[in-house]
């Protein structure tokens, strides 16, 4: 697909999202936050979050775009200014950049946080979530990230390695599902819980071992 064709599809997506956001706005504003585990960061951690770019460079050898975890507007009280880091704000920024030159057309977003902490609304009762407004498929990798990833205890190191292999398998399955589906000509965005370290790990292993990903059901991964 040519860049002009992609830009036309992105522009159509923007128009559709603007229409949907108008109809869903009341439900989003009135949605209950009770029962959700919210982020409990101290001020320095919120400052660090804001310093991390909203997204990085699209991987040239794979249709993958690392992004920072989008956050609901309920967290705006912690930001340094009147900023918005929700999924819609991210998509609008990506579209603006696409218009100015770089071509990115996200069709699937992968949540690799490994956590049930509330980041942003995926679905509302009776209406679509923000990703649906942008015609983006949301995929959550259902693998829990163990606490204390920075420890070097041998037993914990083995547990971490086992977890990483499970997360890698889930990531490969999600990317391959995208590549084999109707959105195969579009890009995959992926975010972790903080920064780009773990997301970078997943992407590097995927790029370095695509054949391993293709036979993910057989188990095991080679290290680049």
Structure description:
There is one protein chain. By secondary structure, this protein is an alpha/beta fold. The protein has one domain (3-30, 39-218): Protein tyrosine phosphatase superfamily (Protein-Tyrosine Phosphatase, Chain A, Alpha-Beta Complex). The chain contains seven helices and six strands; from the N terminus they run H-H-E-H-E-E-E-H-E-H-E-H-H. It has helices spanning 3-30, 43-51, 87-100, 130-133, 154-179, 197-208, 210-214; strands at 64-66, 106-111, 123-124, 127-128, 137-140, 187-191. The strands form two sheets. Strands 1-6-2-5 form a four-stranded parallel sheet, with helices on one face. Helix 1 (3-30) runs antiparallel to helix 3 (87-100). The longest helix has 28 residues, at 3-30. The model is unreliable at 21-33, 149-153 and 217-224 (pLDDT under 50).
Rounded Rg:
18 Å
Within the CATH hierarchy, at the fold level, what is the topology? Protein-Tyrosine Phosphatase, Chain A
Specify the structural class. Answer: alpha/beta
Q: For the largest beta sheet, what order do the strands appear in spatially?
A: 1-6-2-5
Query: Quick one: how many beta strands?
Result: 6
How many distinct helices?
A: 7
* Average of per-residue pLDDT values: 77
> What are the segments in which pLDDT stays under 50 over at least 5 consecutive residues?
21-33, 149-153, 217-224
Shape: globular
Number of domains: 1
The percentage of residues in β strands lies in: 5-15%
Helix content: 40-55%
Order of helices and strands: HHEHEEEHEHEHH
CATH architecture: Alpha-Beta Complex
Question: CA-to-CA gap between the ends?
Answer: 31 Å
The named CATH superfamily: Protein tyrosine phosphatase superfamily
- Per CATH, the class reads Alpha Beta
Main pleated-sheet profile: 4 strands, parallel
